[in-house]
Amino acid sequence: MSDRNWEAEMAKIDQQLASVSDEALLAESKAVAPTKAGGRTVAAPTVAAPARRAAPLAPTAGAWRGWVQVAIAVGAAAGLMFWPWPAQCGGPLIGFAAATGAVALLGLWSAIGTWRHRLGFAHVASLLVVVWGLVLGAREVLPRTGYAIPTTERSEGWSCPAPSGLPTVAPVSG
How many CA atoms lie within 13 A of 55 on its CB side? Predict the structure, then answer.
């Protein structure tokens, strides 16, 4: 627990609030209602509210980093379209599944970067990369887990079928 004396802290805050006028605390852009002083009505001065500025929505100075992250993620996602090995079973399938997971993580990484730098279009592209990685991964994983219909390209199992045996040689008759 904290060793602070909260009663003393609250007393300091109350003292600070007491030193500020109510008009300053409740400043509005409208005129303050007139008050009666000594039997006559006196108009109170208008008090303008302090100007509040919203956070800038423009990209920040390091926005180029967000674009570089998106370029890397989009490049990796496009590279999956040109995967050089057939990913039907065994090691190539595991490699392709790992690559789709990596693309989804790259998309997430670039989405975080573009969110920080307020890059709307780049953020949408990053989220599309995440979806693309997840869709390609699901296309390979779901038939193998029983949630989708297996095809000849995407069989039921992760491993390759065993060879059917040694070829037989017909006996030579003499």
Answer: 6
Strand duo 35-37 + 40-42: pairing: antiparallel
Token couple for 59:
């990209």
Q: At what angle do helices 120-145 and 90-116 cross, to 10 degrees?
A: 150
- pTM value? 0.57
Task: Report yes or no: 87 and 95 within 8 Å, Cβ to Cβ.
Answer: yes
- What Cα–Cα distance (Å) separates residue 145 from each residue in 47, 65, 161? 69, 39, 17
R_g of the chain computed on alpha carbons: 34
Beta bridge partners of 36: 41
Task: Say whether 40 sits in a helix, a strand or coil.
Answer: strand
pLDDT in tens, 67-107: 999 999 999 999 988 887 777 778 888 888 899 999 999 99
CA distance 136 to 149: 15
Q: What are the start-end ranges of the H helices in 3-150? A: 6-19, 22-25, 63-79, 90-116, 120-145
Task: Write phi, then psi, for 68 (nearest 5 degrees).
Answer: -65, -40
Tokens at 9, concatenated: 């802290």
Q: Is 158 helix (H, G, I), strand (E, B) or coil?
A: coil
The secondary structure of residue 89, as a DSSP letter, is: S
Instruction: Kindly list the domain boundaries of the chain, sorted by start residue.
Output: 63-145
